Amino acid sequence: MQQNTDRIAALIEPSLNEMGYDLVRVAFTGGRRPTLQIMAERRDGVAMTVDDCADISRSASAILDVADPISEAYTLEVSSPGIDRPLIRPEDYVRFAGYDAKVETAAAIDGRKRFKGRVLGFENGQVALALDDGTRVLLPFAGIARAKLLLTDELIAAAQRQQPAS
Questions:
Q1: What pTM did the predictor assign?
Q2: Is residue 49 pLDDT above 80, yes or no?
Q3: Structural domains for the chain
Q4: CA-CA distance, 128 to 16, in Å (whole number)?
Q5: Is the torsion defined by CA of 33, 6, 114, 98 positive or negative?
């Protein structure tokens, strides 16, 4: 299904970019009624609203209805990455340097697959982390199975600063 999600991303990303959004992730989950999840964020850094998700949903639906990349019936779900967001792209590790994250690698590195620590950035194709024990580790970006920010008071405070004025 990875190939199909890559195709879907390629189909909808230009439209999202024109609308002022960055595509974060496209995921397809199975089940009785499969779900296509589109995760996006505003390029201006302001927190996503329900209206933003609705706009993205309308645009993506129109594109997907014409291209028809999914042969079965599915539910479309559009969301923001949330505060404890996944780290998907190399630039995510640069943008969120200084925040705590949990990273899982596909293969063991120095006998382990799970790492938790402060994101230091992205260097030469590798993610730099300062582990809780004070050691610094470089993880090959291509070998990361999944990664996400950890919900901390510091992250919550940063997210609150991005909220639109009411």
A1: 0.80
A2: yes
A3: 2-79 (3.30.300.70), 90-160 (2.30.30.180)
A4: 30
A5: negative
